[in-house]
Design a protein that fits this description.
The chain is an alpha+beta fold and 312 residues long. It has helices at 13-24, 40-44, 55-62, 70-77, 82-90, 114-120, 134-145, 209-217, 241-248, 251-273, 286-293; strands spanning 101-103, 132-133, 147-154, 160-166, 177-183, 186-187, 192-197, 202-207, 233-239, 277-281, 301-309. 35% of the residues lie in helices and 20% in strands.
Length: 312
C-alpha cells in the first residue's frame, strides 16, 4: 500500500492491519473489570461492563437538546428581557481595587492573508527566548477577545443598553471565558500573570513572578518536549461555567468548550500572522494550576492554554 502523505514506500501490510484493529474495533472483554492497571486505550477499546462509568459519554448524553423541554425553553426565554439585556451590558466591568493596571499600546497590523495564515499554522514546541514586544501581545489579545463592535439596544420599558461584541463568538453573548496571560518574556511588562479586560483594553496584574514559576511547574510535558521556559507568554482560558449553564443548562458546558476553541484558534492565527509560533496545550495538572492562579476549579476553572514564543 502506498503512503499518500509522504509519497514514500509501501506501508507494511502488518502495520495496516494493526492500525485498523486498534482504531476500528471494539471487543467485548469482561476480564478488563478484574484488571488492576487499566490504560485509557484498554478502557475505551473494550466493551467491558465496567463499574467505572464514562464521564465523557454521560456528559454527551445529559447535555443533549430535546424537543418540548419546557424548562430549558423558559430558561432561554428569560434572557430576552430588559433586566437580562442590562446584565449583558455590564459584563466585563468587574472592579479590581488595588491591582496594577497596564494600558496596552497600539497593536501591530495583521497583513497576512487569511488562507495563508491557516496554511502556515503549525504546533511549535521550541522557542528561542527572545523577548516579545508589548505591541505584538496587544494584537494577539485583541484578536482573541478584544471588542470588535458595539450596539445600542432599545429596552421594552424605554431607554437603551450598550452591548459590546468580541472577536470570538459566544453563545448568547454571555462571554463566560476570561483570558489571562502569563508574561514570561515580554518587553515592557513585568513577569507575572495578568487578566485581560476587553472593555478597557487593559491588563490587570493578578499574580507576580513567583506565581509564573509555580504555573510553569504545573505543566506535565518536560522541557525536552515543550520549552515553556523559553516561551514569551502562556495564554490561559479560564471559564465560569455557571454563566452559560444558568441559561443553557448542562448544554452550556458544551458551548463553553466551543468558545474556548474559537478563542484559541484566534490566538493561533494571529500568532502565525505575526511570525511567531504557538502551541495548544492541555498537559497541565488541574488542581495544581488552580492553586497557582487562586481559582476554585469549579466556578472558575482553567479550560485550556496556548503557549506563544519565537520559533526555535
Amino acid at each position: 500500500m502506498w503512503d499518500g502523505e509522504t509519497g514514500k514506500g509501501p506501508i507494511d501490510p502488518r502495520l495496516v492491519n494493526a492500525a485498523a484493529y486498534t482504531n476500528l474495533s471494539k471487543e467485548v472483554a469482561p476480564w478488563v473489570q478484574a484488571t488492576g492497571f487499566r490504560t485509557n486505550a484498554l478502557r475505551y477499546s473494550t466493551g467491558s461492563q465496567s463499574n467505572d462509568g464514562s464521564i465523557a459519554e454521560d456528559f454527551l448524553i445529559n447535555s443533549r437538546l430535546v424537543r418540548h423541554d419546557r424548562e430549558s425553553e423558559a430558561s432561554i426565554t428569560s434572557y430576552f428581557t430588559d433586566s437580562a439585556t442590562a446584565m449583558l451590558s455590564m459584563l466585563g466591568h468587574e472592579e479590581d481595587p488595588g491591582l496594577p493596571v497596564v494600558s496596552l499600546p497600539e497593536g501591530v497590523r495583521l497583513h497576512l492573508e487569511f488562507g495563508e495564515a491557516i496554511a502556515r499554522r503549525r504546533s511549535i514546541r521550541t522557542y528561542t527566548g527572545d523577548k516579545l514586544g508589548l505591541a505584538y501581545l496587544a494584537t494577539i489579545l485583541r484578536s482573541a477577545a478584544g471588542i470588535t463592535g458595539v450596539a445600542d439596544v432599545d429596552l421594552a420599558l424605554g431607554g437603551q443598553s450598550l452591548l459590546r461584541f468580541r472577536a470570538a463568538p459566544s453563545a448568547g453573548g454571555l462571554y463566560p471565558i476570561d483570558l489571562y496571560v502569563a508574561a514570561l518574556k515580554v518587553a515592557g511588562l513585568d513577569r507575572g500573570i495578568y487578566r485581560y479586560k476587553p472593555n478597557e483594553d487593559t491588563l490587570v496584574q493578578v499574580k507576580g513572578a513567583s506565581a509564573v514559576e509555580h504555573l510553569i511547574e504545573c505543566f506535565a510535558a518536560p522541557d525536552e518536549l515543550i520549552s515553556i521556559r523559553q516561551a514569551n507568554t502562556v495564554f490561559l482560558l479560564v471559564g465560569q461555567p455557571w454563566r452559560s449553564m444558568r441559561k443553557y443548562g448542562d448544554r452550556g458546558m458544551r458551548l463553553l468548550f466551543l468558545e474556548a476553541g474559537a478563542i484559541a484558534e484566534n490566538i493561533n492565527l494571529a500568532t502565525v500572522a505575526l511570525g511567531f509560533g504557538s502551541l495548544d496545550c492541555a498537559s497541565f495538572y488541574d488542581d495544581e494550576v488552580h492553586e497557582a492562579m487562586n481559582l476554585d476549579g469549579l466556578y472558575q476553572a482553567l479550560l485550556h492554554t496556548v503557549i506563544v514564543g519565537y520559533p526555535g
